[in-house]
Amino acid sequence: MVARVVSGKSIRGILVYNERKIENAEASVLMAAGFPRSPEELSFKNKLERFEILTRQNERTKTNALHISLNFSNRDELDDEKLRQIAMDYMDGIGFGNQPFLVYRHYDASHPHIHIATVNIAEGGERIETHNIGKYRSEKIRKSIEERYDLVKAEEQKKEMAYMLKPIDLERIVYGKQETKSAISRTVREVADSYKFTSFSEFQTVLNQFNVIANRGNPGSNLYKKGGLTYHLLGGYGEKVGVPIKASSIYSSPTLKNLEKKYSRHKMQRKPYGQRLKHLIDKAMKNENDIRGLQRELVEQGIRIFLYGNEAGDIYGVTYIDNATRTVYKGSDLGKGYGAGAFLKRTGISLDDLRDMDLREEETEPATSLQTLPVIQVVLSDNTIGHGEKSDRGYSKKLQKTRIHQLE
């Protein structure tokens, strides 16, 4: 757990910041400690007045507001109730347990985190000392909470937060050598451990961003019958390249069986982030009236959209990836306004537009980050399973040469 404590002169400003996050579907209020009513019953005015009752009792103290953020690893198992308990323990530990405070859960980053708003003026006008609070009191309780709740340690988490997954640079990999396994293993572990996917096809779509493909084998093959899984590097035209890596040989063992165990849990874990994704898609569609503008707006938020179709030009599915919060949604899971047909209608993209797109045939520079990849891609396949779920055979023969249409 990484704790950050910032002192300020405006509790109003801190509240405005967090309440605006709620309006934008990027946060929710978890608790209101020391308030007469539940968070849902409190207006902005109610929240502000509760704090100002205290700050008016000591107008000499100008730096009277505290804005705290507690940041967790994606590997930490955290529901709202556990976050409330952690917030209470932390506030007790830094000497603010008797103060009124508001706890907000934010969904605007890839890792779980909460924000806490409070003031350092106690009842009667006494000022609570905050000098070096981060260095001493916060550090002590932070370590205690990590042990109590079995959280990822701050030192390890800081390294984790600094790590950003990038597409594998195929030109730098020597096929068949150790570099291949190392590159694939690193990517697969990160995706399997931190992304919230609820099906094999969603997992596959995320992996493809990073030039890796998971292979279950053709139906009827020994690999498929035994529930096996291998991973390969994914070439620029959708072909598997290099030697396959067995799932069981990768540390953390991302086998098909182990992946399937995650689906129901991920379905619950991604719930808080669906509203953010819909809000950002709606906002982009409202603000931009062409594909370029839409892509520009969404790339800043880490969102990518995959439309699934066949060679006849039929689009039958859509998957949304929010790389900021590391969540994946089929369009139908977000709601009827976000399915493939609705997306095409709302954006004004026609099937003719998709058919007329130039295929990606010329050599291009390899992507060095997700920001350099197209936001909207059309993935064509003549062999599908369910809504937008590609078969493990991958792509049609034609598309092994030209895998992706880019909407640019």
Protein model, in words:
Pfam families: Relaxase. This is Relaxase/mobilization nuclease domain-containing protein. The chain is of the alpha+beta class and 408 residues long. Helix content is 37%, strand content 20%. It folds into three domains: 159 residues, 2-Layer Sandwich (BirA Bifunctional Protein, domain 2); 98 residues, no CATH class; 137 residues, no CATH class. A hairpin with a 5-residue loop joins strand 7 and strand 8. The chain is globular and about 75 Å long.
Ranges where pLDDT stays below 50 over 5 or more residues in a row are 357-366, 382-408
Report the oligomer.
single chain
The CATH level-2 architecture of the largest domain is identified as 2-Layer Sandwich
- What class do helices, strands and sheet pairing give? alpha+beta
Counted up, domains total 3
Biggest sheet, in brief? 5 strands, antiparallel
**In percent, how helical is the residue content?**
25-40%
Number of helices: 14
- N-C termini distance: 41 Å
SSE arrangement, N to C: EHEHEHEEHHHHEHEEHHHEEEHHHEEEE
How large is the share of residues in beta strands? 15-25%
Q: Provide the spatial order of strands within the biggest beta sheet.
A: 1-3-5-4-2
Instruction: Give the integer mean of the pLDDT values.
Output: 82
Gross morphology: globular
